[in-house]
Design goal:
Layout (H helix, E strand, L loop, with lengths): L2 H14 L19 H12 L31 E6 L14 H13 L4 E5 L6 H5 L4 H17 L4 E7 L1 H10 L4 H6 E7 L16 E4 L24 H12 L30 H20 L8 H16 L6 H10 L8 H19 L5 H6 L4 H9 L6 H4 L4 H25 L1 H19 L20 E7 L4 E7 L4 E4 L1
Parallel strand pairs: 1-2, 1-3, 3-4, 4-5
Antiparallel strand pairs: 6-7, 7-8
GO molecular function: cutinase activity
Keywords: Disulfide bond, Hydrolase, Secreted, Serine esterase, Signal
Family: Belongs to the cutinase family.
Length: about 500
């Protein structure tokens, strides 16, 4: 039988068969007359085109077809990728010009080579496994590797990925994970995915990304390897960008906008403002509205909550917008003193620097004492405010130190500040009042939905100041909302 006849016959079978939602891989029973050898040869010939000179990118750090950095004794790294290659590809990740290594290099260039560990999935990667919906043993192997990464490296961000039949393995393996291990999966990314319409176990869709090119018959559940199925190296940069945004809290603006990779052209926002003017108030209101949205989108450690989570969110905003200091200080000072504070005075800037120190310690040190932060969460902001009253501490220079040195320098200051704050809460009415206001505002922000309009009942200094109207279209609701700023009010007009 000619290969073309084989393809026509099998394509008819593939399209006629119903698609199962069952994520468990099954063994394929093949009749002795089934032309498996011819189909294997066809797949190998066409899948080799996936690494052709026309499509390949020059490999850099990852230049091998086999990686076992989870099982070969390599120390745990911040990010661990479990990757399954496609049918007939070499090694356990594909040759250096295949999708896998191209993806690894793109990701390493964004988060750092020493921050990424790659573990390939060893499985036959033959046509029989593909026709079965993904090799059953390989699917179990991938699930075991994911579980091992979660246990062996408790702080690593786990990324699972695969191409073609490897994408089938990602779906199958995800369905075999326990709830606790599923929660450890930071992102699932597939290319040329035959199961693109199926879920990844119970991994939330916000943590998954599927790349399927127009004209790719494999993505449609077929068996014809079209040119589109051999071009996924071109999607590796976008995939790496998306992964980096979820695995590195300091990486780029992608942590903020879920669909940023769908933009046709890169847009750079430049904010022009006058220091110590009404512009500061506008900026505070804008980032106050933005922060709850980021908190809902960004993948921070589960234990990070309340004030500590807000500090980290505002540090990310600071990094993205290149602000001179963490603007969470504005939120705290506004809650404590109303508008009676200097947006760029020492209290605001030093408090912002302290918050940056905390963010660096929590996000960039391996042995974070979670219980220390959780036990003192209710005292955190007032403790930081207590520290900045020590005129001998220069936090502008301290920020240049690495996270380990910052931790050694800063933790004793907090340990000393917390008892002082506790004493003032018992004996000082003003401190107690500030504490209650800070905790109430934090609780209100925590419960606020990302779509809620920020309301500010503040009074402004310029009684005759002009009105500023901002109109925003809400396409989903089909309504227009006008936000009016004037000399006495900030309100929402439906």
């Amino acid at each position: 039988m000619k290969p073309t006849q084989v393809l026509v016959a099998l394509a008819a079978i593939a399209y006629a068969a119903p698609v199962s939602d069952d994520t468990k891989a099954k063994a394929l029973e093949i009749d002795d007359d089934f032309p498996l050898a011819e189909l294997e040869a066809y797949f190998e010939a066409h899948m080799n085109g996936e690494t052709s000179e026309a499509n390949s990118l020059h490999a850099r750090q990852f230049s091998s077809s086999t990686y076992n950095q989870l099982t070969d004794g390599t120390p745990c790294r911040p990010v661990t990728m479990i990757y399954a290659r496609g049918t007939t590809q070499a090694g356990n990740v594909g040759d250096p010009a295949a999708v896998g290594p191209v993806l690894f290099n793109n990701l390493a260039s964004r988060i750092g080579l020493n921050n990424l560990a790659v573990q390939g999935v060893a499985y036959p990667a033959n046509i029989a496994g593909y026709l079965a919906g993904g090799d059953a043993a390989g699917s179990r192997t991938m699930a075991d590797l994911i579980s091992r990464a979660a246990t062996q490296c408790p702080s690593t961000k786990i990324i699972i990925s695969g191409y073609s039949q490897g994408a089938q393995l990602v779906h199958n393996a995800a369905g075999m994970l326990s709830a606790s291990v599923t929660n450890r999966v930071t992102a699932a990314v597939t290319f040329g995915d035959p199961k693109q319409k199926q879920a990844f176990g119970t991994i939330p869709s916000s943590r998954t990304r599927i790349f399927c090119r127009a004209g790719d018959n494999i993505c449609d559940g077929g068996i014809i390897v079209t040119p589109a199925h051999s071009q996924y190296q071109q999607d590796a940069p976008a995939a790496a960008e998306w992964i980096a945004a979820r695995s590195d809290p300091y990486y780029g603006a992608q942590v903020f906008v879920a669909n940023i990779n769908t933009m046709s052209h890169k847009v750079e926002w430049i904010f022009l403002k006058i220091k110590n003017s009404y512009h500061d108030n506008i900026e505070r209101l804008a980032i106050s509205k933005w922060a709850p949205q980021l908190s809902a989108e960004i993948n921070l450690p589960d234990w990070v909550e309340d004030e500590l989570r807000e500090i980290l969110i505002y540090e990310i905003i600071k990094t993205h917008m290149t602000q001179p200091f963490n603007r969470y200080s504005w939120i705290i000072l506004r809650n404590m003193f109303g508008h009676d504070f200097d947006h760029h005075g020492k209290s605001a800037t030093f408090l912002g620097h302290v918050f940056s120190v905390i963010a660096k310690i929590v996000l960039q040190t391996e042995d974070v004492d979670q219980q220390f932060w959780l036990d003192n969460m209710h005292l955190l902001t007032l403790g930081c405010f207590e520290i900045i009253n020590d005129k001998t501490v220069d936090f502008t220079q301290g920020l240049l130190s690495d996270a380990g040195r910052l931790k050694a320098f800063f933790t004793p200051l907090l340990i000393s500040a917390f008892p002082v704050v506790n004493g003032k809460l018992k004996n000082d009415e003003k401190t107690n009042s500030n504490h209650k206001k800070l905790r109430k505002h934090m609780t209100d922000r925590k419960s606020e939905k990302s779509s809620t309009l920020i309301k500010d009942e503040a009074d402004f200094d310029d009684e005759d100041g002009p009105e500023l109207k901002v109109e925003e279209e809400e396409e989903e609701l089909g309504t227009r909302r006008t936000i009016t700023f004037n000399s006495r009010k900030f309100n929402s007009v439906p």
